[in-house]
Amino acid sequence: MDWNPALIWLAIALLLGLAELSSGGLVLLSLGVAAALTSALAALGLPLPWQLLAMGVFSGILIPLAVKVIRPWFSPSGVAYGTTGTGVEQGRTYTTLKRDFDGASGVKINGDFYRLRVAETGATELPEGTRVTFERFDGTTAIVSRAQPERSQP
């Protein structure tokens, strides 16, 4: 088999596409598509400097398109990734859960399970469905207090 530039670009595109399976950010997939498009230009006989320029142009168009336009379609709405632990959840009320495999009490914050500890008593076990107010994190443990019951207006 004779390795011409078009096949080399296709091999690069395939490797980048496979590497995307480990990242999920769509950047490597965009680079793979850019390499595949560049292979089409290489098959037309463009010299290497023009191939590299085309790869740069395709990447410059496809990466922002994938990151800003396509990736949000795959993210659940209302989840602020990267904000857990910054204080944005302080004072919010959560419902306790029991983890399946070990029965640990905890709360789900931004989709992640955190074991809990009650600030007043130090207890680490609460009945499932108990309403708690988040105070802060101590490592990976959520420090909570029991939520005040809502009073109904007469």
From TrEMBL:
Q: Which Gene3D superfamilies match?
A: Nucleic acid-binding proteins
The regions listed as transmembrane in this protein's record are: 50-67
Keyword list, A-Z: Membrane, Transmembrane, Transmembrane helix
Origin: domain of life: Bacteria
The protein here is known as NfeD family protein
